[in-house]
Every structure is written in structure tokens, then in C-alpha cells.
TrEMBL record:
Encoding gene per record: glsA
Keyword Transcription: no
Catalytic activity line of the entry: L-glutamine + H2O = L-glutamate + NH4(+)
Name by which UniProt lists this protein: Glutaminase
Enzyme class per UniProt: hydrolase
Amino acid sequence: MTRPADARTYDLDDLRDRVRGESGGAVDDSIPQLAEADPDLCGVALALPDGTVRASEQADVPVSVQSAVKPFLFALALVDTRGEALDLIGIEPTGEAFDAIKLETGTGRPPNPMVNAGALLTAALVDGGDVDGRNERILRGLSAFAAQDLVVDEDVARSEHLLGDRNHALAHLMRAEGTLSVSADDAVAVYARACAVLVDVRALAVMGATLACGGVNPVSGERVLPAHVARDVVSVMATCGVYDGSGRWMRSVGVPAKSSVSGAIVLAAPGALGGAVVSPPLDDQGTSVRGRIACEVLSAELDLHVFGRR
Ligand code: GLN
């Protein structure tokens, strides 16, 4: 058995070169801004528990965070509701697409916080009182995870809000079931804006590292979350973070993660590191094709699989 590589010296440009030739997948076209993404973009970053952030070329290209925001919205909702969010949202994997128009049978709750129904609800549960207040709370909360002031791409936020018909449908369905207390349009507005927050792989890796380090941001030193909340969030990333591809992901990568339609993937390897990959072409389940390969390689070479080595 070869010895695992050391994350402190691991060659991320070499990893990027090894996955860049993969040409499979298609760029998301649900909104014009995503359809215009550069299919050749490929960046990787790692954030270590000692606060070191290491990155490949193209690590500073911003993309909208999209569904990679969902673990962090769940975290903020857990904090702001003092755990009540766990009663209001399920935590079981669905085996279905992220935007399936479906709620938990019997309860009408969203099935889990990593699919759109769940994230529409977590975004509605954070403190703030109204849309502006919740937007503000989310942007401040995400910035604490990233150890930098993040900003919103207002065009993306507008498009997500206007064109997110399935999200409007889900919000109305939750209203009908009595599981969403704010108006459907307010819920979509806040969720759409959260998806439109701009991150680069460095910022996203630090966000993942904050979860991996039990809620303490290793770059700023700030405790962003209680340790038990970080553990809950990472647990649900492990079971639901890659939607109907979560089982395959857990077997082949074995690191809790969250995928997104911008081609960003955030990784939280508990106690070891946070990581992120961005590459826009997606597979049928909405996961970055190069991102998946890069995560498989990283997991194998840095010995990150939670259930051990091959
Ligand atoms: N903006 C997207 C949406 O709701 C996010 C989806 C995703 O990244 N999977 O619908």
C-alpha cells in the first residue's frame, strides 16, 4: 500500500491537469447566467485545520454558490431555531432529483435540507423578520463560514427568482401543507438570493473546513457554529448531499459533500480538511463531472474516505 500524500504539500495544479482533459457533461442552462459559464473552468482548493488555504490555478474565478449553499442554510436555520428545524424538515435521502415536486408522505415536510424543498424552508427559518432581514442574516452567516465578506450576483438572484418555476411550485405546495409559514414568493426570493452568492473555490473550501473543524472557522478562528450543529450538518451532507447520487458518491469518494448546478462541490472531511472544486459541466444528477473525478482522486490520494482505504 502506498502512503497517502500530505495535504500540506499535495500538488493541486497537477490534480487539475489530470482532470481537465475530461470532456463529459453539460453546462446547466436553467438561467442565462449559468448557461454562459466557461466549460473549461476548473479550480480546486483545500483548507486545512491550521488555517492554511491551498489552491490550483483558476481558484479565484467567482461562481454563484447555488446548491452548495444548502448545508450552510441548514446550519443557520438550526442555530436560529435552536434545533427546531430538525422537527420541521426530514433528514432522509430521497433517491430523486434535487427539484422533485415532492414532500414527505404523511407530514408534508420537505424530505431533507439538501433538496430544494428543504432549502426553501431553511432559508425561511433563519432570523431576520422579513425578506431583507433574512437576506442580510444569510449573507453575514455565509461570510462567517468563508472568513471573508461575500457578495450577491444580483442578476443571478433575479433570474433564479423569476425563472425558478419548480421552486415556486414547491413553496406553494408547502404552503398548502402548512409547513411553510412565510409567503411562497418570499421563500423563493430569499432562497434565490442565497443561491446567487458568489464564491471562489478558496472561499468554498474554507466554508467546508468550518464544518469539518466542528464549527470553528480555521482561518478566522471564529466559532461559527456549536460543534453538535456542525456534526448534524455534515451527517446530512453524507447521506443526502449529492441527491440521488449520494450512495454512489459515498462509496467512491467517501467524503461528505454538496454538489451544485454551477459546478461547485464543497467537501467537509471531518477533522481533516475542507475542500472545493469548481468545473461547470454536469452529469445527469447535477454533479460536476470533473469535480467528481477530482474528489475521487483527492479522497484516494489523501486517504480521506471515512470508511477507510481501498
Ligand atoms: N438554483 C438552483 C435551484 O434551485 C440550485 C439547484 C442546484 O444547484 N442543484 O433550483
